[in-house]
Specification:
- The protein is mainly alpha-helical and about 400 residues long.
- The chain has a domain at about 1-75.
- It is built from 15 helices and no strands.
């Protein structure tokens, strides 16, 4: 199993690197020309501004650099509300514990940065646990609905009585064990739920924030997936119509969206793992497996010459045990259990014990009728204990 896990890990790492390389090539091809055009326009405007106001470019760049530092501290050209009032701080901690991290508001003091480390450590862990429990509850609800629909169909057909009582909470949970939905079914439900939440949230952001509907959808994915670029951030203007209601709706949409998208990522990761397992099975060479099993049987037969097994006599269960990855020494044929050794060499071991016993006593010992029939002698010390055990388990021939 360790080798299979290593192969799965390496294949996933290679696929992720290839995925990142392809993404970098696509984004570079799309965004680089626009960036160059914007830089040329900015250089032209900067040159015109310095010439018009008789300023050196070095002084102007120094001033702009200072503004960038002020902007990082939350200072803007327009007179907007403070970012670190209670509502702004609550929005900030929401982006922290949800791992979104827009970057529009960041702590500037040493105390704030130190507190953020410990606060985020506990908050992010608790929120991730909440997301995982949300996915578990969602699967339970889906299983309950599937079972209820099935029972309703059976009642309509007259197979189940209409007045059937449900059991206790524990028995009800146990009864849902066989109704766990398929991972593809859960993925479809989460995709539809995420799409509905994103469309509804975009319909709210478009008129209130002044964004286009496409930009609103883009913001929803960036925020709900906890990527959080920070190029578009909600609830940052000075005033809003129905400001309290809008902030509440913004909080609810972000919470629901993050739960659905995070759960969707977990489900997609399961599908990716299944795909990797399928790729590994396709890449595995059947000839190599046959050669390994022939080598395994030949090496095992060297250790146990009296126990020649046929492949036809090995069931799926025993083959899985003998070739388990958790017992690498047994797999390579370097070590066998004492039980198998004794089972295949009872007679030879009994004769050896008899000879050792006679040599130790100086004369052949008198054997009882029972021991003569079984072919075992008394033995000495630990050999006697083993001998008696063999005599008890032997079959009269």
């Amino acid at each position: 199993r360790l080798n299979a896990d290593n192969a799965r890990f390496l294949l996933l790492a290679v696929l992720i690197v290839l995925y990142m390389l392809c993404g970098a090539a696509v984004f570079s091809a799309i965004e680089l020309p626009t960036e160059r055009e914007a830089k040329e326009r900015w250089e032209e405007r900067l040159e015109n501004f310095t010439r018009r106001h008789n300023l050196s470019r070095a002084e102007l760049r120094h001033f702009l650099r200072e503004y960038e530092e002020a902007s990082g501290a939350g200072i803007r050209v327009d007179d907007i509300r403070p970012r670190w009032d209670f509502t702004g701080a609550f929005y900030f901690v929401g982006t922290v514990v949800s791992t979104i991290g827009f970057g529009m508001t960041t702590p500037a003091t040493v105390g704030g940065k130190i507190f953020l480390i410990f606060y985020g450590l506990i908050g992010c862990a608790g929120t991730i646990l909440f997301f995982n429990l949300f996915l578990e509850r969602l699967i339970t609800v889906i299983a309950y609905i599937m079972k209820s629909c099935h029972e309703r169909q059976l009642r309509r057909k007259g197979v189940l009585p209409h007045n059937g009582r449900r059991g206790s909470g524990t028995s009800e949970v146990d009864s849902l064990a066989g109704w766990k939905p398929s991972v593809y079914y859960v993925m479809l439900i989460l995709c539809v739920a995420s799409l509905i939440i994103s469309c509804c949230a975009s319909a709210m952001y478009t008129p209130i924030e002044g964004w286009s509907y496409f930009d609103s959808l883009y913001f929803c994915f960036v925020a709900f997936s906890t990527i959080g670029f920070g190029d578009l951030v909600s609830s940052q203007n000075i005033r809003y119509e129905s400001q309290g209601l809008y902030r509440f709706g913004n909080f609810v949409f972000i919470l629901m969206g993050v739960c659905c998208i995070y759960s969707l990522f977990n489900v997609i990761s399961i599908v990716i793992k299944q795909s990797i397992n399928w790729i590994l099975k396709k890449l595995a060479c059947k000839c190599c497996h046959r050669c390994q099993r022939r080598l395994f049987r030949s090496r095992r037969n060297v250790v146990m010459p009296g126990n020649v097994r046929s492949r036809r006599n090995i069931s799926i269960e025993t083959d899985g045990v003998n070739e388990s990855d958790t017992d690498g020494r047994r797999l390579s044929g370097e070590m066998i259990s004492m039980k198998d050794f004794l089972a295949s060499n009872k007679v030879s071991l009994a004769i050896m014990q008899k000879q050792l016993s006679e040599t130790a006593n100086g004369y052949p010992r008198q054997m009882s009728s029972n021991s003569k029939q079984n072919g075992f002698s008394g033995g000495v010390g630990a050999l006697a204990i083993m001998n008696n055990r063999l005599a008890e388990t032997s079959v009269d021939r």
